[in-house]
Amino acid sequence: KHPFLLVDKIVKQTETEVVAIKNITGDQYFFQGHFPNHPVMPGVLIIEALAQTAALLTFSEAHDPEDVYYFAGIDGARFKRIVLPGDQLMLHANFERGKAGIYKFQVKATVNDELAAEAAITCAVRKKGN
Length: 130
Hints:
Layout: E1 9-13, E2 17-23, H1 43-59, E3 67-79, E4 88-99, E5 102-111, E6 114-127
Antiparallel strand pairs: 1-2, 2-4, 3-6, 4-5, 5-6
């Protein structure tokens, strides 16, 4: 939910891939301190946007309404381009494998087809409170 929802729109979705958009505007809360007079989207929020995009692939499965999707791991994160107000972040997630509520994805974020960030991430589905 707002203000932490970091996916604006899904533009493509298959069983193994999802592509979404996050429009970056200068009035977003995180720009107030990152950095004053030089707004840059924090890398950790780019990765969170990618994790939210990846989780969209598992939403189509039949899960209990009490299930919660947790960001469980990240490997090989690389940041190649800063993301600024006015950019449109394209969020790509590709499903690699899943077992026992653990899902692995390859993700990348681009701006104008230029790589901004990439990583391998793991998401876990668990019951609330566990």
